[in-house]
Amino acid sequence: MSESAKNRIIVAGCLENLFVHQDFDAAKAALHPDFVTHSPGLPSGREAFTEAVKNSPLAGANAEIKQIVAEDDLVVVHLHVAGLAVVDILRVEDGLLVEHWDVKQPV
Of 16, 48, 67, 88, which is most buried with the most CB atoms under 10 A? Predict the structure, then answer.
């Protein structure tokens, strides 16, 4: 299996655990302890990030992954959650998510 395919599976699993299953412990397992997010208003760090998502308006919202594109260590995910279209860009290193960017707009 290619690096891109493996990283696609890792990212999809993490996002599904965060938003679909709300299994925050499983999501944490996919995040590097020093996970960095460049999303305004969200803290970096595995624990702080998952806690912020857990307590955000997105927690418990209906979420659906629409598309996932992966190339080497970068994975781009288009999803709909809580009336928003979201594009997440994640960088994967050694099987863990290490960096995150996103853009959002109302659907």
Answer: 88
- Return d(Cα 14, Cα 10) in angstroms, integer: 6
Average pLDDT score over the chain: 94
Query: What domains, with CATH codes, occur in the chain?
Result: 3-106 (3.10.450.50)
Q: Which phi and psi angles does 80 have, rounded to 5°? A: -110, 130
SS3 readout for 15-80: HHHHHHCCCHHHHHHCEEEEEEECCCCCCCCHHHHHHHHHCCCCCCCCEEEEEEEEECCEEEEEEE
pLDDT band at 60 (very low <50, low <70, confident <90, very high): confident
Sign (positive or negative) of CA dihedral 13, 18, 23, 28? positive
Residue 22: left (phi > 0), alpha (psi -120 to 50), or beta? left
Predicted pLDDT of residue 66:
96
Confidence at 57, pLDDT banded by 50, 70, 90: confident
